[in-house]
Amino acid sequence: MADDELEGAAPKQKGKPKHRSKKKAAAAVDESELLTVPDGWKEPAFTREDNPKGLLEESSFATLFPKYREAYLKECWPLVQKALSEHYVNAALDLIEGSMTVTTTKKTFDPYAIIRARDLIKLLARSVPFEQAVRILQDDVACDIIKIGTLVRKRDTFIKRRGRLLGPKGSTLKALELLTNCYIMVQGNTVSALGPFSGLKEVRKVVLDTMKNIHPIYNIKTLMIKRELAKDPELRSQSWERFLPKFKRKNLKKRKEPKKKNTKKEYTPFPPPQPESQVDKELASGEYFLKERQKKRKRVEEIKAKQADALKKRQEERNKAFIPPKEKPAVKTKKASTEKKIDIEAIKEKVKNAKKKKLGALPVEEVKLKMAADEKKKKKK
Q: Which PANTHER family does UniProt cross-reference here (predicted)?
């Protein structure tokens, strides 16, 4: 009976993992559906009903602005105060210190309103016009201020790469704005971007790549392809790596090779052999055992041998002046050949014929042919 019970229990144990796998698959499907945002969906706005009691503490932010922005901020400050008063945030402009301050009030109910107000004054300080900067107060708009001043060492290189980001007559920047749905402002050592979160992410990538010497046109091409792929609902859940272009870096300038190449010697743990001293050399040649007189005599003989060689060479140089140069062999002049005789009579006849002819007159044969042709025409008539 025990064996029968064990046999019957076995299929029940096998059936459990199948049921679990089905549950996991269903959960995975549900998660993928949850990750996709429905078209046209918007997050509901934050109202006073969500926070009826307001804020407990007062928060404030301040930022400095450059001197050249003073006149513009002075003009548009009433508009800034009006826009912030709708969110119950106070704004103050200090022209003496050159700063802008935003603070919350007792009526402020949105805790994120002060953060948006802080971003607004930051954008105004970075030369963004008020018409664009005021969009930061909307729920679906964010901003990003990218610092590019410290990314490149040389000032000339930095200016060139910043100009590359703008493009000829601002065409590259305009293309980037259209593809990312963001407003971009390049000013000094910063790039200010204003738009949706997905667009800001792409703008930051393009700006940083441009500063790393990657031309923005490559990223613009990639963004254009991504824009077309996003229109296809079937490709939303698939990887786009196969469609995107892959650009390879080309180093055109090659490093100049040095004329003299220093080849490193193979490393050996043993030190080099010690050079022979003068005593060692004398011992090897046997001079060490000679007497002082013999050494002196040997030195004198060596000096005399050197002098004899030098005298011999000098004598040879002097004798070179007395050696006559080799004479060139005399070239025999050929006598004029008298075999070809000049026909004087033929020359005379040619001269006579030339005298008879008038300058520009036709030859005799041509005149006869012309006369015959005229007579034929007359007969026909």
A: HIV-1 REV BINDING PROTEIN 2, 3 (PTHR12581), KRR1 SMALL SUBUNIT PROCESSOME COMPONENT HOMOLOG (PTHR12581:SF0)
